[in-house]
Design goal:
The structure is a single chain. The protein has 2 domains: about 90 residues, TonB (TolA/TonB C-terminal domain), CATH 3.30.2420; about 90 residues, TonB (TolA/TonB C-terminal domain, 2-Layer Sandwich). A hairpin with a 5-residue loop joins strand 3 and strand 4. It is elongated, with a radius of gyration of 22 Å. The protein has a 4-stranded mixed beta sheet with strand order 1-10-7-8, with helices on one face. Strands 2-5-3-4 form a 4-stranded antiparallel beta sheet. A two-stranded antiparallel ribbon has the order 6-9. By secondary structure, the protein is an alpha+beta fold. It is built from 6 helices and 10 strands; from the N terminus they run E-E-H-H-E-E-H-E-H-E-H-E-E-H-E-E. Helices cover about 25% and strands about 35% of the residues.
Length: about 200
């Protein structure tokens, strides 16, 4: 989208990765903690896979220990491994007898960035990458933020003179700058301006 000032603008929304799981039968008090301790698989991000799921079968012994863990199904092996990590961290209540059960685990990182936005600005490269809400921001208790970046494109299509015009926090500036620096754009004499919106959901 080209404005009268000949500065191209578009807005991106980044969504934090999420992992969701529900045990079908045993009472495992630390289930949510086990889920929260497992990150979205980095290999899936590198492969451009934004979501997936896996089902892990296991046995809860009478003393509450989880044994005989096995991936029954997975949309990709990386999700099977991650789901196994969740189950391996489970601590379940004692029972009168052992119990065989299954745990479905869903993974979602966020939607791939829209290629249409980059077609409008003549930029590509990072468009197919998956980016999440900055984890450092989560640690700082931040749930949303904004950053506006302006830059030029040299004759080789590389962003140069990258400037942070405004930002609610430096953690968002860092992610936005890294994104821009990976772009490959059509050479232009006009400066490009990109407002980034971050929201934790």
């Amino acid at each position: 989208m080209h404005l009268k000032s000949e500065i191209a603008c578009f807005c991106l929304l980044f969504i934090v990765w999420t992992v969701d799981a529900q045990a079908q039968a045993p009472n495992c008090p630390n289930l949510q903690a086990a889920v929260d301790s497992v990150a979205f698989p980095e290999e899936a991000i590198q492969l451009g896979i934004g979501e997936g799921n896996a089902v892990v079968a296991f046995t809860v012994r009478a003393d509450g220990e989880v044994v005989d863990k096995q991936v029954k199904s997975a949309t990709h092996p990386v999700f099977g491994d991650a789901a196994l990590s969740v189950v391996s961290r489970l601590r379940c209540d004692r029972r009168s007898t052992s119990l065989q059960t299954q745990l479905p685990v869903n993974f979602k990182f966020g939607d791939p960035l829209s290629l249409a936005l980059f077609e409008q600005t003549g930029c590509k490269g990072a468009a197919q990458q998956l980016l999440g809400f900055p984890r450092e921001a989560i640690q700082l208790g931040l749930t949303r933020g904004e950053t506006v970046i302006e830059f030029r494109v040299d004759a080789d299509g590389r962003p140069t003179e990258v400037v942070i015009l405004a930002s609610t926090h430096e953690v968002f500036s860092k992610v936005a700058r890294g994104f821009v620096e990976r772009l490959n754009c059509k050479p232009t004499v006009n400066r490009m301006r990109i407002p980034f919106g971050f929201r934790l959901e």
